[in-house]
């Protein structure tokens, strides 16, 4: 959607790390690169991520989080950085079918992993049912927590169906019921300061086919 | 367009598009992850570098020396900017403290350096290599201690008095004299303050998260001492602000200075743990309220004093504001007192003044009702006023507080409420509470440009922002209504200082003022279309993409056949706001459950009934209100920036330490809007709701807790430790 | 965050050897605590040893009863395991009361035990903190200590251990199984795993250099009602002010451990025996010698009342 720098980003990713090119070039996944004596080459490693179905090979400073890899290197900025410390949920993505906070995991630890971001769930003209339900129920305001909320919401319904217990499950030896009480508890790792919670619960209930 | 007489009938009154519950036109972009926020813009004039801001480690003092050499030598570092090499920096009109500190330090985590590097990781680790030696000064950090000799605030915040408050209070048969406290609070919007800055020659462009584009651009020029015309600020999507992004903040300055030094675009986002002390907050208050009444509940004396603190040169939290206007009563006084504190800068947060003010006042009213043995809804109803109690010659433009209270009581099942401590379900003590909501309506001059293309597309351009308020959608609705076109025929472009200056988003003035500005521009466009078509005099009707004058009809697009029509206008407000007191009203009803063992309070039901003029988009307006109610629950139950009075800073400065409500804290919320249209406020006949929704919520929760437990807690937030030992023995 | 090199361990012993011999080396499991702290340079490893993918993500029965939980089992999977839900309900309940769904999907058994305190001064590198910087002092004493410990603390540090899971493991008498660089293994009773601060608050566990957790063993199920009650200001996604893990039999006898009050899961065996006597007796025994601060003294009342709530629930 934008011209200019964004358009050449993919090639530039490799150039960005060119400072460490000699080292990076020889790297396989998960290997160590020591930056001995090279002030300009912090350790890099190669990683291949499967983002929204597309394989992407990146040479990254080992310190790069999955969140920053997605936002700054793959240029998928739908995944948000709200706190960078696991305290808000804005960075939620689905990795190998499970939702996680992408800010508290290193990109290099995800060799070969399937990462689904908000952009992979649906597109503006072909929305995922959860995305459409958020629009219909006004499950957002500023929109900044929204991608994380939606990725979480999709995963939460799966978790309930899969029988993962929660803090509000009355009897943990039995499967949890599909209720908005369960949804509210499980969504609590996604903070919305705009306070769209009541509407998000309604959007989720609609997608789950239960009463709000 | 000047708005100085009450609005007559106008095209908005058709309410074919305006007033309809409309899903957001920017919705698909937001839920798809494609709406670009400040840090995410890709259309830059070069490859960006990353800036990481360093904050002061002391609250007050002087930087004795600063060693940046290790940072400068660190891998990937392009530039390090501090007060030593930043050039001349001034203070913006809207800031109290300098955005770049040094050598003088005014508050903890005041920005003192930005490290620019090739990557974010490099910038962050190099930032930790800056060594600073401080001379620490003693500061004042304790409001309770500083309160003692805090002087009266001045100007529009000066004390007010009507009648003989002292005499009337002393003579009142029923009295309340209590002190309430509210803590420092943090906006904690989800998008951190963030900016990308790029210089092209001496022209500076910043993509930033800002509620008030013109203020921000102006203060950016002022701070950097460059001509305002050299600055462009772009802010199309703002990830929440709540007042925290009203003003220029350090991210903008540090990105701009970093970009200048690095000679390329620089991206800066404030790290979350930095925001609590680097940016602004809502100041704590200590409030004394005295109410005097006769046995029948008539208020005879109303006194409200509030103490707050701020840095030298700052302002008070105007917590007495609503007390001047909310209830009748012949004898009244208010006073704001301002102490100098060396904590970070206090400033506006959603409903500044009224939010903490009502937390206290509406608890005091609840206490009075109990003392009188009167229903708190009834007490509020009998003390209603239709005129400004300080200046009875000024009527309210429209005031339906009583209907809000009565309709709310009916819907909520208020009649089922019992005496304090009477309802128990298992381990839960159940209670209901009510509070009035009140927030003044403010209007601001607002401009817009409208274009009509040969294809009939209407494009709106204004520097107005959408901070989650639904601006994109209500602007499109307004243009569609005015021009008689479907929503799809309207494109809205916001948040760019190259567009006409708008009201911006603050003080809940945004929706009414900015749509009114657009109304003015659309009136001009209608005239231009009629003129272009040569449809002589006569009343023009715009509908279905066509314009009718008498029996002449044409597609509006045909007027632009020869080229786009572009018009611009703004709305300016005359003295109707002086002649009529313009305010918004509501009533909040809350049911809580308090764990009898642990004292944990959880909200079970919430209802707000609002009277706020015409509701431009009930869907978005309802969201504003439920969001505000959620913030109100936070203020009542958990939100507090904890002050370390030795080191002088807010200790819990991240989102794990500063707790805000999560999903599990918030039940289903009901919102009702009374059907109103206020012709004294603007041609849109609308007022704001975004702050109204917060006003009174805290007190309604507090009153519900009291009703559940019979224990009154007057210090917010009402955490379990404050009533635990009064909840009765458990074994 | 300082630069670091990264490698994937090939085996548990390989990891232990590397950890002992590579300067500045640390294990990384879920990363949810370590990376949080590395971003703030509270932790500054220069080499990370990724211990995921060593097959330590299984939950297996132990001969003669009990369960062995791999060090890399995710908190979500442990909570959802049918055997745990049935026989060790207190553990499931404690796990799901902790952090958020996203974090539990990453957090591991070993990482959860080894997470560090949430003391706000520990988290602010401008502040003195003996745990973060030995000898620098303790900013929390005399400061904002509402969250911090009331017992087991010292004049050098009053931090609490933030884990919920560990409190349940303490009541279940779990043991932590490790491997050392020389290949030897040992089982550390959970009671001895976390250490009290004394004058060395930076030392937090009994682990030796390079020693790696490979599993946690739960003894045979303890019959009775399993309860985990966590008290906090907001309803979810918050650390405990006080938490109580308890397993209580029909006869009113059982075991109880507390979170949020001490530098380690707090259990006093002598207090267990007092359970039939009610919450006051139990709390008095648990908190004998407590050293509360002005703003966390409420934890003593809160603990007693929460134990009362748990006893009432067990009876119901
Ligand atoms: C916002 C937030 C809220 C939270 N709330 C809660 C809560 O309410 N309750 C709660 O209990 N927890 C809570 N947590 C903490 C969370 O549970 C821990 O972060 C998590 O359990 C750590 O596990 P990990 O596998 O990610 O550990 P890592 O971060 O990978 O490692 C932690 C430590 O363990 C070491 N380590 C890892 N594996 C091994 C091993 N096999 N042998 C030896 N050493 C090892 C690492 O070197 C490191 O020092 C919260 C965290 C966050 C960020
Ligand atoms: S209580 Fe412990 S962790 Fe907290 S500041 Fe003191 S020494 Fe550091
Ligand atoms: S950005 Fe990852 S949890 Fe906040
Ligand atoms: S929509 Fe703004 S934070 Fe959730």
TrEMBL record, chain A:
Catalytic activity: an aldehyde + A + H2O = a carboxylate + AH2 + H(+)
EC number: 1.2.99.6
One Pfam entry name: Fer2
GO molecular function: 2 iron, 2 sulfur cluster binding; carboxylate reductase activity; metal ion binding
Location of the protein in the cell: Periplasm
Cellular component, GO, one term: periplasmic space
Protein name: Aldehyde oxidoreductase iron-sulfur-binding subunit PaoA
UniProtKB/TrEMBL annotation, chain B:
Cross-referenced InterPro entries: Ald_Oxase/Xan_DH_a/b, Ald_Oxase/Xan_DH_a/b_sf, Ald_Oxase/xanthine_DH-like, AldOxase/xan_DH_MoCoBD1, AldOxase/xan_DH_MoCoBD2, AldOxase/xan_DH_Mopterin-bd_sf, PaoC-like
Domain (Aldehyde oxidase/xanthine dehydrogenase a/b hammerhead) ranges: 32-138
Cross-referenced Gene3D superfamilies: Aldehyde oxidase/xanthine dehydrogenase, a/b hammerhead, Aldehyde oxidase/xanthine dehydrogenase, molybdopterin binding domain
Organism domain of life: Bacteria
GO molecular function: iron ion binding; oxidoreductase activity
Pfam families: Ald_Xan_dh_C, MoCoBD_1, MoCoBD_2
UniProt-listed NCBIfam families: peri_hyde_PaoC
PANTHER family to which the protein is assigned, alphabetical: ALDEHYDE OXIDOREDUCTASE MOLYBDENUM-BINDING SUBUNIT PAOC, XANTHINE DEHYDROGENASE
Protein name: Xanthine dehydrogenase
Lineage of source species: Bacteria, Pseudomonadati, Pseudomonadota, Alphaproteobacteria, Sphingomonadales
UniProtKB/TrEMBL annotation, chain C:
InterPro entries found in the cross-reference section: CO_DH_flav_C, CO_DH_flav_C_dom_sf, Diverse_Substr_Oxidored, FAD-bd_PCMH, FAD-bd_PCMH-like_sf, FAD-bd_PCMH_sub1, FAD-bd_PCMH_sub2, Mopterin_DH_FAD-bd
Keywords, ordered alphabetically: FAD, Flavoprotein
FAD-binding PCMH-type domain location: 1-223
UniProt KW Flavoprotein keyword: yes
Gene3D superfamilies per UniProt: 3.30.465.10, CO dehydrogenase flavoprotein, C-terminal domain, Uridine Diphospho-n-acetylenolpyruvylglucosamine Reductase, domain 2
Keyword Flavoprotein found: yes
Superkingdom of this protein's organism: Bacteria
A molecular function GO annotation: oxidoreductase activity
Protein's UniProt name: Molybdopterin dehydrogenase
């Amino acid at each position: 959607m934008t011209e200019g720098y964004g358009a050449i980003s993919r090639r530039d990713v490799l150039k960005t790390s060119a400072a460490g090119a000699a080292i990076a070039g020889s790297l396989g996944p998960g290997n160590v690169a020591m930056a001995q004596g090279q002030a300009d080459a912090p350790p890099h490693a190669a990683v291949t991520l499967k983002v929204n179905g597309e394989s992407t090979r990146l040479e990254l400073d080992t310190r790069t989080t999955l969140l920053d890899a997605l936002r700054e290197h793959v240029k998928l900025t739908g995944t948000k950085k709200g706190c960078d410390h696991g305290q808000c949920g804005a960075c939620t993505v689905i990795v190998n079918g499970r939702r996680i906070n992408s800010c508290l995991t290193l990109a290099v630890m995800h060799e070969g992993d399937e990462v689904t971001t908000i952009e992979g769930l649906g597109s503006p003209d072909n929305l995922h049912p959860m995305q459409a339900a958020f629009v219909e129920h006004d499950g957002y305001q500023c929109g900044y927590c929204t991608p994380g909320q939606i990725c979480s919401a999709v995963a939460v319904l799966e978790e309930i169906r899969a029988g993962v217990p929660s803090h509000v499950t009355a009897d943990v030896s039995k499967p949890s019921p599909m209720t908005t009480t369960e949804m509210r508890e499980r969504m609590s790792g996604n903070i919305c300061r705009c306070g769209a919670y009541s509407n998000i619960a309604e959007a989720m209930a609609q997608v789950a086919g239960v009463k709000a | 367009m000047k708005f100085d007489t009450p609005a007559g009938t106008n095209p908005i009154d058709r309410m074919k598009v305006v007033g309809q519950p409309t899903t957001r036109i920017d919705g698909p972009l937001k839920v798809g992850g494609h709406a670009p926020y400040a840090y995410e813009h890709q259309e830059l004039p070069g490859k960006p570098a990353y800036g990481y801001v360093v904050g002061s480690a002391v609250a007050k003092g002087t930087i004795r020396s600063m060693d940046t050499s290790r940072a400068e030598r660190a891998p990937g570092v392009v530039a390090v900017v501090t007060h030593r090499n930043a050039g001349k920096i001034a203070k913006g009109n809207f800031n109290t403290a300098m955005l770049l500190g040094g050598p003088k330090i005014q508050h903890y985590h005041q920005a003192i350096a930005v490290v620019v590097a090739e990557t974010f990781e490099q910038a962050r680790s190099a930032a930790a290599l800056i060594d600073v030696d401080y001379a620490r000064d003693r500061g004042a950090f304790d409001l309770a201690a500083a309160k003692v000799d805090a002087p009266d605030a001045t100007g529009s915040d000066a004390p007010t008095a009507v009648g003989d408050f002292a005499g009337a209070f002393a003579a009142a048969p029923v009295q309340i004299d209590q002190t309430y406290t509210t803590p420092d609070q943090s906006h904690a919007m989800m998008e951190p303050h963030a900016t990308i800055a790029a210089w092209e020659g001496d022209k500076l462009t910043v993509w930033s998260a800002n509620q008030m584009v013109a203020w921000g651009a102006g203060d950016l020029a002022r701070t950097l001492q460059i001509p305002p015309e050299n600055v462009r600020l772009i802010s199309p999507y703002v990830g929440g602000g709540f007042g925290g992004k009203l003003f220029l903040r350090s991210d903008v300055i540090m990105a701009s200075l970093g970009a200048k030094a690095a000679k390329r675009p620089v991206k800066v986002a404030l790290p979350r743990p930095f925001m609590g002390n680097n940016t602004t907050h809502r100041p704590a208050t200590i409030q004394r309220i005295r109410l005097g009444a006769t046995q029948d509940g008539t208020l005879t004396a109303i006194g409200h004093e509030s103490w707050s603190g701020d840095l030298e040169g700052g302002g008070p939290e105007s917590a007495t504001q609503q007390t001047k206007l909310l209830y009748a009563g012949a004898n009244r006084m208010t006073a704001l007192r301002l102490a100098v504190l060396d904590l970070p800068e206090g400033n506006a947060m959603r409903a500044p003044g009224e939010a903490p003010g009502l937390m206290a006042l509406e608890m005091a009213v609840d206490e009075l009702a109990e003392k009188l043995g009167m229903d708190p809804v009834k007490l509020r109803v009998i003390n209603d006023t239709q005129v400004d109690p300080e200046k009875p010659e000024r009527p309210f433009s429209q005031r339906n507080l009583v209907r809000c209270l009565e309709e709310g009581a009916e819907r909520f099942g208020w009649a089922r409420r019992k005496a304090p401590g009477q309802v128990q379900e298992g381990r839960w003590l159940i209670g209901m509470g009510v509070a009035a909501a009140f927030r003044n309506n403010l209007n601001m001059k607002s401009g817009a440009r409208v274009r009509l293309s040969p294809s009939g597309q209407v494009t709106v351009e204004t520097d107005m922002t959408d901070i989650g308020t639904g601006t994109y959608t209500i602007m499109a609705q307004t243009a569609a209504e005015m021009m008689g076109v479907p929503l799809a025929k309207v494109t809205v472009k916001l948040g760019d200082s190259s567009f006409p200056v708008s009201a911006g988003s603050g003080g809940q003035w945004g929706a009414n003022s900015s749509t009114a500005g657009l109304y003015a521009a659309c009136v001009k466009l209608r005239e231009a279309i009629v003129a272009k078509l040569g449809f002589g005099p006569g009343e023009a009707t715009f509908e279905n993409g066509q314009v009718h004058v008498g029996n002449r009809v044409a597609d509006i697009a045909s007027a632009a056949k020869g080229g786009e029509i572009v018009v611009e206008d703004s709305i300016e407000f005359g003295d109707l706001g002086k002649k009529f007191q313009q305010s918004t009203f509501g009533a909040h009803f809350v049911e809580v459950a308090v764990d009898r063992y642990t004292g944990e309070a959880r909200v079970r039901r919430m209802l707000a009934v609002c009277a706020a003029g015409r509701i431009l988009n009930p869907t978005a307006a309802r969201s504003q209100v439920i969001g505000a109610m959620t913030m109100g629950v936070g203020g009542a139950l958990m939100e507090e920036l904890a002050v370390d009075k030795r080191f002088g800073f807010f200790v819990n400065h991240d989102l794990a330490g500063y707790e805000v409500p999560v999903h599990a804290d918030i039940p289903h919320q009901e919102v009702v809007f009374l059907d109103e249209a206020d012709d004294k406020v603007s041609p849109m006949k609308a007022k704001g709701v975004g702050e109204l929704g917060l006003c009174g919520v805290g007190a309604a929760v507090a009153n519900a807790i009291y009703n559940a437990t019979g224990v009154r807690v007057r210090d917010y937030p009402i955490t379990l430790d404050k009533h635990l030992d009064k909840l009765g023995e458990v074994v | 965050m300082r630069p670091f090199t990264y490698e994937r361990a090939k085996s548990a012993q390989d990891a232990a050897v590397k950890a002992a011999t590579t300067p500045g080396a640390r294990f990384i499991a879920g990363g949810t605590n370590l990376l949080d702290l590395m971003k703030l340079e509270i932790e500054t490893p220069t080499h990370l040893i990724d211990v995921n993918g060593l097959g330590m993500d299984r939950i297996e029965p132990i001969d003669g009863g009990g369960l062995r939980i791999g060090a890399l089992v995710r908190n979500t999977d442990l909570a959802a395991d049918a055997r745990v839900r049935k026989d060790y309900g207190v553990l499931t309940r404690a796990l799901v009361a902790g952090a958020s769904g996203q974090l539990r999907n990453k957090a591991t058994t070993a990482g959860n035990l080894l997470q560090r305190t949430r003391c706000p001064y520990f988290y602010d590198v401008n502040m003195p903190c003996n745990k973060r910087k030995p000898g620098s002092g303790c900013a929390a004493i005399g400061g904002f200590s509402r969250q911090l410990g009331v017992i087991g603390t010292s004049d050098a540090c009053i931090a609490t251990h933030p884990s919920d899971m560990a409190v349940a493991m303490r009541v279940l008498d779990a043991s932590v199984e490790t491997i050392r660089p020389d290949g030897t293994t040992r089982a550390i009773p959970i009671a001895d795993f976390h250490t009290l601060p004394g004058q060395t608050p930076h030392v937090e566990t009994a682990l030796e250099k390079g020693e790696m957790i490979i599993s946690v063993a739960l003894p045979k199920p303890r019959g009775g009602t399993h309860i985990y009650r966590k008290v906090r200001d907001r309803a979810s996604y918050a650390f405990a002010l006080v938490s109580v893990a308890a397993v209580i039999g029909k006869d009113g006898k059982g075991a109880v451990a507390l979170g949020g009050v001490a530098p380690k899961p707090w259990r006093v065996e002598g207090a267990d025996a007092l359970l039939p006597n009610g919450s006051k007796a139990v709390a008095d025994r648990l908190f004998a010698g407590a050293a509360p601060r002005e703003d966390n003294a409420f934890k003593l009342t809160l603990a007693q009342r929460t134990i009362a709530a748990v006893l009432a629930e067990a009876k119901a």
